[in-house]
């Protein structure tokens, strides 16, 4: 469905003459206006009978007419407003130009209608809607008694100031014929004497028998009405105010989800126009109302230091300097509101600690100094500080809430708790704050409930039997006295466990009560607890709960778990069989005794553990290394030091309490530690992903021979795709400006001589700087080798360049570069690619993307947008939250874009460059679109950086606000034009405008100009004249003679500005503006090319593995085979068999055999194979050493024995079928194996139904697998495959190959056809239902249908349809069968027939 189906270009207007209108005050319906000869009579609001009766009453004197004047006037004004409002609504119902532009941006499919018919229709309808007019003379101009039904010609959309002139719509708009002569006469008079609303009287004086002097006299006496323009203006303002409430907005047309996707919601617009960096707005949105005090800023700097300092290898004496640097960075972020790239580029001096040491002395007392610099913070640290700033704000916000809660308790309930007062200011983590919150809400729940009730904030009632209500009952009963007799409070026990002493410097001593616990309990019975045992049990549970709730006890447990915790994995019953030795989770199945330090070194291991636990395969437990010792120590802290039966009784009771609390604390802390470890492990892998993405982005364009780094090459790119002999090799020629000037195909470029000659002619004609190549199969490697040989054979060379060593012109052989195609694979079939190059085939678009990757990898990655997460940066990145991953990848792109800068004028015309704008410092996707739009309104070009904040003198609108401009100015470059006096050289550099004066001062000093010379140059050429002179005279190198140290000292001494690094940047930029700082283009390694072309890694394909091989050529002494990945394998005679027999007597072409890889050459894509049975009997085992201390070998042996016993009973693993698709899998293992395969791939496996059955599992779609039961008939023996294979008592096949091709692959084609159909929805059943509801809501008179996958029934699709807005959504199952679809037991050969059959069934059903 396109947006054309959802909306039309103009809002359709209802025929209001057919609508029933309602009185605005009474709400009662008014009668429809009657037409009087085509002219609507709206002169009255009541029925005619009522009017006659009213007139009779007036005549008879029953009603005093004067009393109703105000009512009538009010009713008339109201009716006039209604009429004007209707007319206004009609005009405003059409979307204005700006709305249409926004809709076009949000929905590229939608096109604005250009036909003029609706306009004319609206004009004609406006004429019909005109109500009866009433003549008003000049005497009536100042009358307060307006005619209630008077309508003026100038209210009409097509009214003319001069009614005598020719009407442009004459003959087109039908004029109504008036039957009444008086009406005709009145209309004629109105045309002759019509008062325009503005501009005074402009009628023709001759028409009324008055000359000009008479008219002037009349105007002098009566005025021209302009004195009362203020009243008319007030009325216009009121009408405009009413109209503003009914403007048609985007949210009235589109679904909220559509607006959110295109960033067009009200919230997005607020972000777009607020003068604050977009990323800051998004990140700080939850903390808008939070203001940090100066003391909190200092606390934050210390808090961040404690988190970052352990990872920095700095000397201890730099700790305070490090804290100050963090405080300064926070000031830049929070006070100055500048982003990370700005701080890193323009405040670099605050990230470095420079130390001056005297190196020598002179007789005059002066000396030379050596400056040593220590880098305190790098770019990664800045992003980390920004992230921690948000966490600290969340911490402060929660702490403020708790402080407010406690203050209220202290003021209202007179609560005073020393524990809270001591712990709350020192809480440094969210866990500690949560502990304090739990403590407060446990101990003072009754007080908080009373306070909430008194303020009316109580939202819920606690259940009488709830957990907290039970403890409240205990606290209010007599047995709570027993709780206080345990000899120590929970707070004191917590301090004692944490080795804290009391206020007197002593350890806490425990004293026993004078009676045994049971005797005291007997004396404290009550109606609530009638027996001593009940009292003792209640007191025990209460004290255990208080221990569990106390923050100090939780802190004690947490510290020990982080310091001495170990992780164990225990397989579940489900994981026992599902996780075999080939399963990716086998490395976790018996893992044990993993310390937190072990996990820190392999964070992906822990994330795999948690994922396996979510799947129900293992249980992950965190325990203490020496739990028994920890428990003994805690019990010892809780015991009294007395020796007596009474002391023993109390100590036993204390141990029971501690046992209760221990279990609760253990579960809570272990859960918290597990979640914290999850976050830390995610952060560790996210950091790796960011570093990998930064490595990919940190590539300059491929550098042609003899050119400077950063020069864009001209590229000829080629690909043979899958390498099928029947497919052609596509190519594309891309100029340095990114234009695709030519593309085409070569037939069999490696063998066909004609194609080779055409290729040579193309190279000689186009003279490329480099040839790029890539593909999807091993056959591409043959093309690479063939092209390199052809280039060398025909001496194909690139363009001429000057040799720097000899000064002579030379040409080098063209380089054939294998290009990373991860971006090209995503691009080739995308909507963006089809729109960019509609006439180029998919493989040709793939070649275009390869060429552009060589020209600028960063632009290609940026153009992917949200699809960037589809690329792999870490083998376990699927275990990461996608929003976190996208955020980290965005920071890497922000770093690189701001390092390189963006030519703002190029971004206006080039979509690829425009895709970089959202990553510019201070901008984002919302502000980037606003920037481009405003620049277009300003004329489509930016001449100076200052123009970006607007220029009233030249009428330039502000592109960004001052704060955002401060962030982005130095990262938006403007090409220097020496011929333009307004062009500033510094606008094309990394120098920020705030430092332009420094750059100009350095240029003046380099040119050795005195103040008078500088003033003369500036007066003549403006502020940039000095730098322009430096460049014009080509004397930029003179800045190298400047001693910048003196400049820096002077700036710091006089202005308290640290600018040493900034001065170095200015010096470099004056010599080479925006020099390319990225590394050279990175060529793929052998292993990377191997994985890209065949899909195999070192883990998936290695020497020693046994793999299926297809015998292609079989000779006496050797054989050539091909592996599934396309790698060519060679079998020598000695490796063919244990028997010395010619290979062609043992094997035949086309035969599938099991082969062992003896050697693997990844560079040549070849392997040496062995088919000897003695070699094949040795299974492949990964070299995984299992440390007995970290691997449960005993449990592993037990489980293997148990599985062997079960397999003997079922016979599952005893059967082996000689077929390349056969795997000894169960259903879950088959699904996991197919998870990484393509849709349509299948696995043949043993069946649990017995040896006369086989099972086929095939991948329908991602996450959807169908299991097919195959019955074997006519079997030779128990283990052979039947000669006849039957599926569902309907489909019969002679062998497995025929079954796979004619059954599975045939259904896979039908699935692919279905999923490529325009009516297919990729979402779930509920998402498709929501789409249908949205569509019919937008199109209430239309029916809609679509297809989606039935995830609950693999092999089925759902036909979802809705016959109208109010109709329910219905679902019909569509079954996939070989070569057809089945709907209601009727087969349909293709999608067209299926859709037509559905429509016919619906039609027949509705008629029935």
TrEMBL record:
Region (Disordered): 1-200
Keyword Nucleus applies: yes
Organism of origin: Glarea lozoyensis (strain ATCC 20868 / MF5171)
Biased composition (Basic residues): 76-86
Keywords: Chromosome, Nucleus, SH2 domain, Transcription
Gene Ontology molecular function terms on file: DNA binding; histone binding; nucleosome binding; transcription antitermination factor activity, DNA binding
Domain S1 motif intervals: 1104-1172
Pfam family, one: SPT6_acidic
GO BP of this protein: cellular response to stress; G1/S transition of mitotic cell cycle; negative regulation of transcription by RNA polymerase II; nucleosome assembly; poly(A)+ mRNA export from nucleus; positive regulation of transcription elongation by RNA polymerase II; regulation of mRNA 3'-end processing; transcription elongation-coupled chromatin remodeling
Basic and acidic residues: compositionally biased ranges: 27-37, 127-139, 149-169, 183-195
Protein's UniProt keywords contain Lipid metabolism: no
Subcellular location: Chromosome; Nucleus
Main location: nucleus
Cited function: Histone H3-H4 chaperone that plays a role in maintenance of chromatin structure during RNA polymerase II transcription elongation thereby repressing transcription initiation from cryptic promoters. Mediates the reassembly of nucleosomes onto the promoters of at least a selected set of genes during repression; the nucleosome reassembly is essential for transcriptional repression. Essential for viability. Plays a role in maintenance of chromatin structure during RNA polymerase II transcription elongation thereby repressing transcription initiation from cryptic promoters. Mediates the reassembly of nucleosomes onto the promoters of at least a selected set of genes during repression; the nucleosome reassembly is essential for transcriptional repression.
UniProt similarity note: Belongs to the SPT6 family.
Name this polypeptide is given: Transcription elongation factor Spt6
GO cellular component, as recorded: euchromatin; pericentric heterochromatin; transcription elongation factor complex
């Amino acid at each position: 469905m396109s947006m054309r189906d959802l909306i039309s270009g103009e809002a359709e207007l209802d025929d209001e003459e057919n609508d029933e209108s309602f009185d605005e005050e009474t709400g009662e319906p008014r009668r429809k206006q009657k037409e009087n000869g085509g002219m609507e009579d709206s002169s009255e609001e009541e029925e005619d009978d009522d009017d006659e009766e009213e007139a009779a009453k007036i005549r008879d004197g029953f009603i005093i007419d004067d009393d109703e004047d105000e009512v009538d006037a009010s009713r008339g004004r109201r009716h006039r407003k209604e009429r004007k409002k209707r007319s206004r609504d009609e005009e405003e119902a059409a979307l204005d130009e700006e709305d249409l532009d926004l809709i076009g941006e949000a929905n590229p499919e939608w096109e604005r209608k250009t036909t003029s018919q609706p306009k004319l229709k609206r004009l004609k309808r406006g004429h019909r809607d005109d109500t009866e007019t009433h003549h008003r003379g000049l005497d009536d101009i100042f009358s307060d008694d307006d005619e209630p039904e008077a309508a003026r010609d100038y209210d009409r959309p097509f009214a003319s100031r001069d009614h005598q002139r020719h009407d442009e719509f004459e003959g087109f708009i039908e004029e109504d014929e008036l039957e009444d002569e008086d009406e005709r006469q009145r209309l004629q008079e109105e045309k002759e004497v019509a008062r325009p609303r503005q501009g005074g009287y402009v009628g023709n004086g001759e028409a009324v028998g008055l000359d000009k002097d008479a008219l002037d006299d009349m105007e002098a006496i009566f005025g021209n009405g302009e004195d009362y323009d203020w009243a008319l203006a007030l009325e216009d303002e009121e009408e405009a105010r009413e109209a503003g409430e009914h403007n048609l907005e985007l949210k009235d047309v589109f679904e909220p989800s559509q607006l959110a996707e295109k960033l067009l919601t009200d919230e997005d617009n607020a972000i777009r126009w607020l003068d604050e960096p977009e990323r800051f707005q998004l990140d700080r949105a939850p903390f808008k109302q939070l203001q940090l005090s100066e003391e909190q800023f200092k606390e934050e700097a210390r808090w961040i230091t404690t988190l970052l300092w352990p990872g920095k290898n700095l000397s201890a004496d730099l700790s305070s300097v490090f804290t100050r640097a963090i405080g300064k960075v926070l000031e830049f972020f929070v006070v100055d509101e500048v982003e990370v790239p700005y701080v890193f580029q323009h405040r670099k001096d605050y990230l470095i600690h420079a130390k001056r040491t005297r190196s020598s002395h002179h007789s005059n007392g002066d000396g030379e100094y050596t400056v040593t610099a220590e880098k305190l913070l790098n770019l990664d640290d800045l992003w980390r500080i920004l992230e921690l700033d948000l966490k600290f704000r969340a911490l402060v916000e929660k702490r403020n809430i708790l402080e407010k809660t406690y203050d209220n308790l202290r003021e209202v309930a007179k609560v005073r708790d020393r524990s809270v007062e001591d712990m709350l200011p020192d809480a440094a983590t969210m866990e500690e704050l949560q502990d304090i919150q739990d403590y407060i809400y446990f101990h003072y729940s009754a007080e908080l409930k009373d306070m909430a009730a008194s303020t009316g904030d109580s939202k819920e009632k606690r259940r009488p039997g709830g957990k907290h209500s039970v403890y409240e009952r205990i606290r209010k009963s007599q047995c709570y006295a027993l709780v206080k007799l345990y000899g120590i409070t929970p707070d004191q026990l917590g301090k004692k466990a944490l080795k804290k002493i009391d206020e007197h410097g002593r350890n806490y001593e425990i004293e026993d009560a004078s009676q045994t616990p049971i005797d005291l309990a007997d004396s404290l019975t009550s109606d609530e607890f009638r027996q001593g045992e009940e009292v003792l049990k209640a007191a025990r549970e209460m004290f255990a709960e208080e221990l569990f709730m106390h923050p100090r006890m939780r802190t004690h447990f947490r510290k020990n778990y982080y310091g001495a915790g170990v992780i164990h994995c225990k397989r579940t019953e489900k994981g026992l069989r599902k996780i075999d030795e080939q399963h990716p989770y086998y490395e976790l199945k018996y893992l044990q005794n993993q310390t937190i330090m072990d996990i820190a070194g392999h964070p992906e291991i822990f994330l795999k553990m948690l994922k396996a636990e979510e799947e129900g395969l293992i249980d992950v437990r965190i325990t203490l290394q020496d739990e028994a010792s920890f428990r003994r120590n805690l019990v010892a802290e809780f015991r009294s030091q007395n020796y007596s039966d009474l002391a023993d009784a109390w100590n036993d009771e204390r141990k029971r309490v501690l046992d209760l609390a221990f279990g609760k604390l253990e579960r809570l802390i272990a859960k918290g530690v597990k979640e914290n470890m999850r976050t830390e492990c995610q952060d560790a892998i996210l950091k790796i992903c960011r570093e990998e993405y930064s490595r990919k982005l940190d590539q300059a364009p491929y550098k042609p021979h003899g050119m400077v780094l950063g020069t864009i090459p001209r590229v000829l790119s080629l690909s043979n795709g899958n390498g099928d002999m029947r497919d052609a090799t596509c190519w594309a020629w891309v100029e340095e400006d990114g234009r695709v000037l030519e593309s085409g195909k070569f037939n069999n470029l490696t063998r066909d001589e004609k194609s080779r000659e055409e290729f040579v002619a193309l190279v000689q004609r186009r003279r490329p700087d480099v040839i790029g190549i890539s593909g999807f199969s091993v056959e591409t490697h043959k093309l690479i080798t063939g092209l390199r040989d052809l280039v060398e054979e025909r001496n194909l060379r690139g363009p001429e360049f000057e040799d720097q060593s000899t000064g002579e012109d030379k040409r080098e052989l063209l380089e054939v570069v294998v290009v990373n195609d991860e971006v090209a694979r995503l691009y080739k079939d995308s909507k963006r690619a089809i729109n960019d190059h509609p006439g180029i085939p998919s493989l040709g678009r793939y070649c275009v993307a390869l060429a552009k990757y060589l020209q600028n990898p960063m632009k290609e990655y940026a153009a992917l947008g949200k699809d960037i997460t589809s690329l792999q940066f870490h083998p376990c990145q699927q275990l990461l939250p996608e929003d976190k991953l996208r955020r980290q990848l965005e920071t890497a792109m922000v770093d690189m874009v701001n390092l390189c800068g963006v030519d703002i004028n190029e971004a206006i015309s080039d979509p690829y460059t425009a895709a970089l704008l959202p990553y510019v410092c201070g901008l984002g996707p919302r502000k980037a679109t606003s920037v481009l739009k405003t620049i277009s309104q300003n004329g489509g070009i930016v001449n100076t950086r200052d123009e970006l904040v607007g220029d009233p003198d030249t009428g330039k609108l502000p592109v960004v606000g001052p704060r955002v401009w401060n962030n982005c100015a130095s990262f938006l470059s403007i090409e220097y034009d020496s011929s333009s006096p307004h062009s500033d050289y510094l606008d094309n550099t990394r120098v920020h405008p705030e430092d332009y004066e420094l750059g100009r001062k350095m240029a003046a000093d380099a040119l050795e100009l005195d103040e008078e010379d500088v003033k003369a140059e500036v007066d003549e050429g403006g502020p940039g004249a000095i730098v322009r002179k430096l460049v014009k005279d080509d004397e930029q190198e003179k800045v190298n003679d400047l001693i910048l140290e003196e400049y820096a000292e002077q700036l710091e001494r006089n202005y308290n500005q640290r600018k040493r690094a900034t001065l170095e940047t200015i010096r470099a930029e004056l010599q080479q503006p925006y020099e390319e700082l990225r590394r050279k283009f990175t060529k793929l390694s052998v292993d990377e090319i191997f994985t890209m072309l065949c899909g195999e890694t070192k883990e998936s394909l290695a020497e020693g593995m046994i793999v299926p091989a297809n015998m292609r050529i079989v000779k006496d002494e050797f054989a050539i085979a091909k592996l599934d990945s396309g790698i060519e394998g060679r079998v020598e005679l000695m490796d063919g068999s244990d028997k010395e027999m010619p290979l062609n007597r043992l094997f035949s072409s086309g035969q599938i055999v099991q082969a062992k890889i003896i050697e693997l050459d990844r560079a040549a894509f070849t392997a040496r194979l062995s088919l000897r049975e003695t070699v094949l009997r040795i299974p492949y085992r990964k070299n995984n050493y299992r440390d007995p201390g970290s691997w449960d070998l005993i449990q592993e042996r037990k489980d293997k024995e148990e599985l062997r016993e079960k397999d003997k009973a079922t016979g599952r693993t005893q059967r082996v079928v000689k077929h390349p698709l056969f795997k000894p899998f169960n259903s879950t293992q088959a699904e996991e194996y197919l998870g990484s395969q393509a849709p349509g791939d299948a696995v043949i496996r043993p069946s649990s139904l017995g040896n006369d059955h086989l099972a086929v599992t095939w991948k329908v779609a991602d996450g959807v697998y169908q299991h097919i039961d195959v019955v074997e008939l006519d079997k030779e023996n128990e283990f052979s495959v039947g000669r006849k294979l039957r599926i569902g008592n309907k489909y019969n096949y002679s062998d497995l190959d025929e079954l796979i091709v004619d059954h599975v692959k045939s259904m896979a084609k039908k699935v692919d056809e279905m999923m490529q159909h325009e009516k297919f929805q990729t979402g779930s059943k509920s998402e498709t239902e929501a789409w249908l509801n949205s569509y019919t809501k937008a199109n209430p008179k239309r029916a809609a249908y679509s297809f989606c996958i039935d995830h609950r029934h693999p092999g089925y699709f759902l036909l979802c349809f809705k016959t109208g807005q109010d109709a329910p959504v219905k679902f019909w199952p569509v079954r996939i069968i070989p070569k057809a679809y089945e709907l209601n037991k009727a087969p349909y050969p293709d999608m067209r027939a299926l859709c037509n059959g559905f429509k016919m069934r619906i039609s027949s059903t509705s008629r029935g």
